[in-house]
Design a protein that fits this description.
- α1 packs across α2, α7 packs parallel to α13 and α8 packs across α13.
- With 396 residues, this protein is of the alpha/beta class.
- Helix content is 38%, strand content 16%.
- The radius of gyration is 20 Å and the shape is globular.
- β2, α2 and β3 form a beta-alpha-beta unit.
- It has a 10-stranded mixed beta sheet with strand order 9-6-5-4-3-2-1-10-11-12. A two-stranded antiparallel sheet has the order 7-8.
- The protein contains 14 helices and 14 strands.
- The structure holds iron/sulfur cluster (2 copies).
Length: 396
């Protein structure tokens, strides 16, 4: 099974075994402030009994024979190896014939031989957060570049399957090709995800939830124009040289939408609601980007994951991605590819006065127009049973 594309799962819960705790404090981390919701709990880590409950419920909640566990943070490696050994034991005990995979998202700085051996032996996919070359990475990620690179070396040494998760901020966004080549040529990374920073804070210094007006954009956020240019320039580099070799999540998802198949990432899918986040105490939230009190679905100690994930509140949250689209999106020729992107970024008013246009809209429009003919070509190749990579012979 290909576990490089965890977002293609029908239902999954991103688990925070160490809560919002992290050994770094990256400037734009959207998760560190979540510890304020749990300040009465000095431990802030998931107890074993809860882990057991989660593993059992999570497997039972799946509608497919394959189950993907996603360990996230904060920094999940702050939990000891024994925690994950216990989790794997519980998975085996509760699997009932299902195939189980694990992926873990880490800042990479705590990786050592022992962790890497464990990940290899247990077939983990490891996502490493790294924001490009050192002069970009170190600015916002606590000068951790060298430690992250050591971690990546160890992953390679033990032949662990890993991919890179990069944050695109106000600085690296201006250097798309250098950024992309770093992953391709320096890291020899084949699976790349990148996410633009779009963050707003209110007067009390707390993040503003998507779908709400107001707040002040952070200086680290990208502009829509920068985002559009960034995508176009990387696409040009990729489409000429790397199709079929280098898997850029956003390009793959765009092509999937062009072909009419599920895009594999939630941001470009028509609805949300299949990927929740669970805190260390069992609180379940509609999405990792909506860990705010009003988006709490309940706690797995009182309700099951199944009842919460298929309940009315989550269904409404998921469908809102489509039902709350502003008129400009409904009339957009690229709606099939964009779907209004992530609701967390929808806080502009559109040209008709409807609230809820995506802040990155003009960047996406530029990107979709730019890639349209190449996407048409690759989608045709795919429909005819040929390789999308044939595009590389037809572009200059
Ligand atoms: S709100 Fe955004 S991140 Fe959350 S499921 Fe929807 S598209 Fe994905
Ligand atoms: S490109 Fe803009 S108008 Fe079109 S669907 Fe996306 S956000 Fe909406």
């Amino acid at each position: 099974m290909d576990i490089a594309n965890p977002f293609a799962r029908p239902l999954y819960v991103m688990l925070k075994p160490a809560g919002a705790q992290c050994n770094l404090s990256c400037r734009y981390c959207y998760y560190l402030e979540k510890s304020k919701y749990y300040s009465d709990n000095s431990l802030d880590v998931m107890p074993d009994a809860l882990l057991e409950q989660f593993v059992r419920q999570y497997i039972e909640a799946q509608t497919t024979p394959e189950v993907l566990f996603t360990w996230h943070g904060g920094e999940p490696l702050l939990r000891p190896l024994s925690f994950y050994q216990k989790a794997l034991l519980l998975q085996r005990q509760n699997a009932k014939g299902r195939h189980i995979d694990n992926c873990i998202q880490t800042n990479g700085t705590l990786l050592n031989d022992e962790w890497c051996r464990f990940f290899k032996e247990n077939n983990f996919l490891v996502g490493v957060s790294i924001d490009g070359p050192q002069h970009f990475h170190d600015i916002y990620r606590c000068k951790s570049f060298e430690k992250v690179m050591r971690g990546i070396e160890l992953l390679n040494k033990y032949d662990v399957q890993w991919n890179a998760m990069a944050v695109v901020n106000n600085l690296n966004v201006g250097h798309p090709v250098e950024f992309y080549r770093f992953f391709r040529d320096t890291l020899n990374c084949r699976f790349l995800q990148f996410t633009p920073i779009v963050e707003r804070y209110d007067a009390s210094g707390m993040l503003v939830a998507g779908l709400r007006d107001g707040g002040k954009l952070t200086a680290t956020s990208v502009t829509a124009e920068q985002w559009g240019r960034f995508l176009c320039e990387i696409f040009d580099e990729w489409v000429r040289n790397d199709v079929g070799e280098m898997f850029v999540q956003l390009f793959d998802a765009t092509l999937a939408n062009w072909c009419g198949v599920p895009p594999g990432i939630c941001s470009l899918a028509p609805v949300c609601g299949h990927s929740a986040a669970m805190e260390h105490n069992g609180d379940l939230y509609s999405c990792d980007h909506f860990v705010f009190p009003e988006y709490k679905l309940g706690n797995i100690q009182n309700e099951t994951i199944t009842s919460m994930m298929y309940g009315e509140q989550q269904r409404t949250f998921g469908q809102a991605k489509r039902t709350a689209l502003p008129r400009q999106c409904k009339e957009c020729q690229y709606l099939f590819a964009c779907n209004g992107e992530c609701p967390k970024n929808r806080f502009l008013t559109d040209e008709y006065g409807d609230f809820g246009l995506n802040y990155l809209c003009s960047g996406y429009l530029r990107y979709f127009r730019h890639v349209a003919s190449a996407m048409d070509f690759m989608a045709d190749e795919w429909r005819e049973g040929r390789e999308a990579a044939n595009i590389m012979h037809s572009v200059l």
